[in-house]
Design goal:
Elements lengths: L73 H9 L7 H11 L4 E4 L6 H15 L5 E4 L3 H12 L10 E4 L5 H9 L4 E4 L1 H10 L9 E4 L2 H6 L3 H10 L6 E6 L4 H10 L4 E4 L9 E8 L2 H12 L6 E4 L3 H13 L4 E4 L5 H12 L5 E4 L1 H4 L9 E4 L6 H8 L9 E8 L8
Parallel strand pairs: 1-6, 1-7, 2-4, 2-5, 3-4, 5-6, 8-13, 9-11, 9-12, 10-11, 12-13
């Protein structure tokens, strides 16, 4: 059995709920007990956390191009060959030729489809062939901004002479100010920190001619809509190329795109929901001690790569200490850590030095790690949208993932 289901003997205690047990928020019928401190949450019916994974049939995609067919600077071709790339992914195949021609593009694609290179290659091509060109790329989180910059830099060389800067929160402002004083031609960052620099007068976007928004839907979900508008309003509209990428096209996303693109072509390679391949279930617990016991049971299989969510930084740190004391290799990531601390924890998780990462929602929005087998909602999410974002990190690349949500038995009117 790939995980200990909430409907088996491991996840349901036979003891009656203790009146003096730990506190938890009510997410169903029954009596309400004192809630732990944490963010205000929407009501989510427990049955929405239970869903069987689907076998998603992948349609075979026949590419129209090979990377060698694209009209690119020789250095870019050399670096692509060095990386072992031959056949582009669907989003790359359909976006790169048109983006290199300077067209505005709306790319609809899930995470993990190769979209960073779909916009990164055209951006670098423009910067290398036009020494007056400048580009700005925005991503929703610090970690994603770093990943984007690292991936794009991998197709350049020292001879490319493209000076860049990374503008993210949690990193030293002094270094960013020094970088900006050198007038970098490639700016990668998060909306909040980019807006900070515009308001300080340290960032001038008047000569930016390429704008990329990566994961527009997530940026809007995180409340960056006003920051994005202010930033785009500071960049010139005439002759500007805009490349916007999103997993969804809801009305909020459509409004931003319509306001800041010109006759954009749409390329869609979205294939089903990111949660279709995730087996979802619940784990009922009686009280806080019982909750921790059931979590340890889920983590007993050391071959799992597990992302655990809890509400606050204090709760995250407490849980990590408990797990490490029990011999589980775990690290934490939350807004109370600086960027270097978050980067170290994330790298340990990526490189399998640890197999358990405990995070808050805000910090975890930047986690894009291959090979996550299980997502555990040790605390329930604030919204159902947050839930889908959380569990979508498992079950990628055609693999089945597993998502477990911990719910208090007494709050659900359960008796055993």
């Amino acid at each position: 059995m790939p995980y200990n289901s909430g409907n088996n003997r491991y996840s349901r205690s036979k003891r009656r709920p203790s009146a003096g047990g730990g506190a938890s928020r009510s997410y169903g019928g029954g009596s309400r007990r004192p809630a732990r401190k944490g963010p205000k949450k929407d009501y989510i019916a427990p049955e929405r956390f239970i869903k069987a994974a689907k076998q998603v049939k992948k349609e075979e995609y026949i590419p129209q191009n090979q990377f060698k067919d694209f009209t690119l600077h020789p250095t870019i071709h050399q670096q692509i060959t060095r990386k072992g790339f031959e056949t582009p992914s669907p989003i790359q195949d359909q976006v790169i030729p048109h983006a290199v021609e300077g067209k505005d593009i709306i790319g609809l694609a899930n995470t993990g489809t190769g979209k960073t290179m779909a916009f990164g290659i055209p951006v670098i091509q423009k910067l290398m062939t036009d020494r007056r060109a400048r580009a700005i790329i925005m991503a929703p989180t610090r970690e994603l901004a770093e990943q984007v910059l690292d991936e794009i830099r991998s197709i350049t060389s020292r001879e490319s002479r493209i000076y860049w800067t990374l503008l993210i929160g949690g990193a030293p402002m002094g270094r960013q100010l020094r970088d900006l004083s050198r007038n970098p031609r490639l700016i990668v960052g998060t909306p909040g920190r980019i807006q900070d620099h515009i308001e300080r007068g340290s960032l001038d976007l008047s000569d930016i001619d390429t704008v990329v928004l990566d994961e527009v839907d997530r940026m809007l979900d995180m409340g960056f809509v006003n920051s994005i508008r202010r930033i785009l309003e500071n960049a010139p509209t005439q002759d500007r190329q805009s490349l916007f990428f999103s997993a969804t096209m809801d009305p909020k996303v459509r409004t931003i795109i319509d306001d800041f693109t010109n006759d954009a072509m749409t390329v869609s390679v979205v294939s089903g929901s990111t949660t279709d391949t995730v087996e979802q279930d619940v784990v009922y617990y009686d009280h806080d001690d019982d909750k921790l016991v059931k979590l340890r049971e889920q983590l007993a299989d050391g071959n799992r790569k597990v992302l655990i969510f809890d509400d606050t930084r204090r709760q995250v740190e407490k849980l990590v200490r408990s797990l490490n004391n029990e011999g589980f290799a775990s690290e934490s990531i939350h807004g109370g850590k600086n960027q270097s601390q978050r980067r170290r924890a994330l790298n340990k998780f990526k490189e399998n030095h640890i197999n358990i990462l405990v995070a808050t929602d805000v910090a975890a929005r930047g986690i894009d790690v291959d090979g996550i087998t299980h997502v555990i909602n040790y605390s329930t999410p604030q919204t159902y949208s947050d839930y889908t974002h959380r569990i979508g990190r498992a079950g990628r690349a055609g693999n089945t993932g597993y998502a477990l949500t911990f719910l208090e038995a007494a709050a659900q009117g359960r008796r055993y």
